[in-house]
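Subject: design request, 91 residues
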């Protein structure tokens, strides 16, 4: 199944799931609704689009991790071996 591409962006909940940061999209959606996901320093709702170059911050209970968006996937999921081509963990 392919996503319909609107320019070069993707919903943040779909992006987090497709690049294997979460195992299920429902988890990514709940994280956004719980206000633990930020894009470029702004708390993001699940439907917020991410673009190449954006930074995604996830505030887990024990630590906060910042990711940089390198590419937008064109398929529903990518292999874990290719994760580094799509997202880079900054801290």
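Subject: RE: design request

Done. Sequence follows.
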């Amino acid at each position: 199944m392919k996503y319909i591409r609107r320019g070069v962006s993707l919903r943040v909940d779909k992006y987090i799931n497709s690049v294997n940061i979460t195992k299920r999209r429902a988890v990514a959606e709940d994280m956004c609704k719980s206000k633990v996901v930020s894009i470029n320093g702004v708390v993001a709702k699940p439907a917020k689009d991410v673009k190449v170059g954006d930074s995604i911050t996830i505030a887990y209970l024990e630590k906060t991790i910042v990711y940089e968006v390198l590419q937008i996937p064109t398929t529903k999921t990518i292999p874990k071996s290719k994760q580094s081509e799509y997202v880079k963990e900054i801290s």
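The first strand starts at residue 9 and ends at 11.
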